[in-house]
UniProtKB/TrEMBL annotation:
<protein>
    <submittedName>
        <fullName>Lactate utilization protein C</fullName>
    </submittedName>
</protein>
<dbReference type="InterPro" id="IPR024185">
    <property type="entry name" value="FTHF_cligase-like_sf"/>
</dbReference>
<dbReference type="Pfam" id="PF02589">
    <property type="entry name" value="LUD_dom"/>
</dbReference>
<dbReference type="InterPro" id="IPR037171">
    <property type="entry name" value="NagB/RpiA_transferase-like"/>
</dbReference>
<dbReference type="InterPro" id="IPR003741">
    <property type="entry name" value="LUD_dom"/>
</dbReference>
<feature type="domain" description="LUD">
    <location>
        <begin position="108"/>
        <end position="204"/>
    </location>
</feature>
Length: 206
């Protein structure tokens, strides 16, 4: 097998030995317009069939409480480091802490999880988590059926290049574009296969 491979590669090298070097231009777009980024992000997230709200910081706690009440949430995972004004909107009796780490069955039995994020991408409607403060470990947002994610407007960047530049590649990155969904060859959509069936996003403005 290795002998056949070497013979093929040798023929390729011989064929291109006298070929001139060709410079291939790579004009990648590395920056986009930040104007209207929050509006574009909200529009894209909505396209993914996620529930989207835009609210000033002062109204966010009430919005969180309404969202949880609307779903009848009784137990929701609240990761360490979540902004106090957001965590405080969760009824104390409903708070599930991941310390010590909750088992997979306990996470599955929870009504959902509430987190912040590391960065969000306007062009693609993508939320990125990196297990930082207020986000928790990856399992917290992959096992529960409902994810309520708080995104500060200042965290929204125009495109993927800006998001990549802002992230630490050594951290465990989870890129979320809408609720978990897949479809078969008949294009029958199935939600909740490898993540939350329901994604609700609150964009927090100043």
């Amino acid at each position: 097998m290795s002998g056949s491979r070497e013979r093929i590669l040798a023929r390729v090298r011989a064929a291109v030995r006298d070929a001139p070097e060709v410079e291939i231009p790579r004009h990648y777009r590395t920056a986009g317009s930040a104007e209207g980024a929050a509006e574009r992000f909200a529009d894209r997230v909505g396209d993914y069939q996620a529930a989207v709200h835009v609210a000033p910081a002062a109204d966010t706690p009430a919005l969180i409480a309404e969202a949880l009440d609307r779903r009848g949430v009784r137990r929701i995972v609240v990761p360490g480091g979540l902004a106090e004004e957001w965590a405080g909107a969760v009824p104390p009796a409903a708070v599930l802490r991941d310390d010590p780490p909750l088992s997979a069955s306990a996470l599955d039995a929870a009504d959902g999880v509430i987190t912040g994020c590391a960065v969000a991408v306007a062009e693609t409607g993508t939320i990125v988590l990196d297990a930082g403060p207020g986000q928790g470990r990856r399992a917290l947002t992959l096992i529960p059926d409902y994810h309520l994610c708080l995104v500060r407007a200042a965290q929204i960047v125009p495109g993927v290049p800006e998001a990549v530049a802002a992230l630490d590649p050594a951290r465990p990155l989870t890129w979320i574009s809408g609720p978990s969904a897949t479809s078969d060859i008949e294009l029958d959509r199935v939600e909740g296969v490898h993540g939350p069936r329901t994604l609700e996003v609150v964009i927090v403005t100043q």
